[in-house]
Amino acid sequence: MKYFKILIGVFILFALASCHSTKKLQTAINKKDTAVVKMPVKPSDSSFNKIPAMDVLNKLYKNKIDFKTFSTKAKIQYEDHNGKQPDFNAFIRLQKDSVLWVSISATFLGIEAFRIYITPDTIIILNKLDKSVESHPFHYVESIAHIPLNFSILQNIVIGNPVYVGDSIVSYRQTENHILIGTIGNFFKNLITLSATTNELQRIKLDDINVYENRTAALLYDDYEPNNGFYFSTTREINVNEKSKVDIKISYKQYEFNKELSFPFSVPRNYKTK
């Protein structure tokens, strides 16, 4: 179960860069802060010209990756206050709006440890280490992530499409190489850095509005590769500071879009049900 919780934490960090969000935060975040942004970003009241920032962000949303299926092998490195944890591989298959299938292999064991089957309604976890299976409603994922979540948001986290972006623009600056846009929601300040030449997302800096929470995080996107008319980030890093520091690096390998996929999942008769 440890690797499953880390994997879910990784998915959430892609979007929010704060896997240590508390239950208090879970109940406080409102709907507009947790949904994938589909409407144009609204400017907040200020004297500076927000039109360029609105144009850039709306292009980012319009250029989101549209897909039918996605598959990849991801190497995940994880380090927290206990030090560097063993690396593991996650084999991921995704059918849009339908199924997310994950096979987790601990590199030091060299065997498959978990197989996970997620639909918009259900999550089933096959634990091959202790020969057990457990089934939960989808909101079980929320109980691990500590933030509101649905299948659509989860799949966009895996793909790298924008989620959890505040809808008010509070700052904008363009340099020779970068575009920096500050947005704000009810609970987070978000500084988004994009490439000035390609509009590719490069960095997200997230801070609590409540200074007493002292949560801060940085999420980096790198090593973009062209794929069927869009660019896909194959290397992502997450650095979180709250009461302790968490560093995660994820490398996508052998990824494919829009290929026919199977989602093998069967429970052996000798497995116990939890």
Keywords:
19% helix, alpha+beta, 6 helices, 274 residues, 16 strands, single chain
| CATH architecture classification | Clam
Tell me roughly what share of residues is in helical segments.
10-25%
Binned strand content:
35-45%
Q: How many discrete domains?
A: 1
CATH superfamily: Lipoprotein localisation LolA/LolB/LppX
Topology:
Layout: H1 2-16, H2 23-28, H3 31-34, E1 42-43, H4 51-62, E2 69-80, E3 83-84, E4 88-95, E5 99-106, E6 111-118, E7 122-127, E8 132-137, H5 139-145, H6 151-159, E9 168-174, E10 178-184, E11 188-195, E12 201-208, E13 216-227, E14 230-241, E15 245-257, E16 272-273
Can you tell me about this structure?
- It contains six helices and 16 strands.
- Helices cover 19% and strands 44% of the residues.
- It has 274 residues and is an alpha+beta fold.
- A hairpin with a 5-residue loop joins strand 11 and strand 12 (201-208).
- Residues 13-41 have low confidence and may be disordered.
- The protein has a single domain (2-251), classed as Lipoprotein localisation LolA/LolB/LppX (outer membrane lipoprotein receptor (LolB), chain A, Clam), CATH 2.50.20.
- It has a 16-stranded mixed beta sheet that branches.
Describe the structure concisely for a colleague.
The protein is an alpha+beta fold and 274 residues long.
